[in-house]
Specification:
By secondary structure, this protein is mainly alpha-helical. It contains nine helices and no strands. It starts with a helix and ends with a helix.
Length: about 210
């Protein structure tokens, strides 16, 4: 029982902290919350963590094999660089076109929003090396025990951490946006696209330095 609680707590902590940095899943979630409210946002987050459950489970089981596949890691990291610039354009173009009406992701109903979470989480390929690295760390350090059903307690802790971490960030963004006219006006049309451009440049530099220099 103590080991199961330890698995849940450690998985929750890693995932909660890992989900706090501003990423496109959080940005879409914020826009959905801003336009449609909490229940629709929860449907979106449930879609996100459905995919993350399987990603974390399989990277936990096959962590050593995935870590040794350098070619797969290279493709994933290269795709993530390009995807940052694509997202910057999508959010800028959508905010410019729709004004304050939100982007295309915020207009679906419950099922459509859940599906949006599933699809966007499937495109979040960078979570594969992220969870491979963390799972190797906790396994090699013997911080968790995955024999029998114990692995499921760890995975459930991680998806709970992602859910609440994203929800906290979304609610925080909404609070600060409502308190600041500048953020309300420029967050989606300027600040978020610039953040993604900055992330793309940063990841591109790391990619070049790692594989070509």
């Amino acid at each position: 029982m103590i080991q199961n609680l330890k698995n849940i707590f450690l998985g929750f902590l890693i995932s909660f902290i890992g989900s706090i940095p501003l990423g496109y899943l959080n940005v879409v979630g914020f826009d959905i919350y801003n336009q449609r409210g909490l229940l629709i946002t929860i449907c979106y987050l449930l879609g996100v963590i459905c995919i993350e459950f399987f990603v974390i489970f399989f990277t936990l089981i096959f962590a050593n094999k995935l870590a040794s596949n350098k070619k797969l890691t290279k493709y994933i990291e290269g795709f993530s660089v390009i995807f940052m610039f694509v997202l910057a354009y999508i959010f800028y173009a959508s905010a410019t076109k729709n004004g304050n009406q939100g982007n295309e992701f915020s207009h679906f109903g419950y099922l459509g929003t859940f599906t949006t979470g599933v699809v966007l989480s499937c495109l979040n390929f960078i979570q594969i090396p992220f969870w491979t690295s963390w799972n190797l760390y906790v396994l090699n350090g013997k911080h968790i025990e995955i024999s029998g059903n114990r692995k499921y307690f760890y995975v459930m802790g991680t998806v709970a951490g992602t859910f609440f971490g994203m929800l906290v960030l979304i609610l925080s963004l909404n609070y600060f946006t409502n308190q600041t006219d500048f953020l309300a006006k420029y967050l989606m049309k300027a600040i978020i696209p610039l953040v993604f451009i900055g992330l793309g440049i940063f990841q591109g530099f790391k990619f070049y330095k790692k594989y070509f220099k």
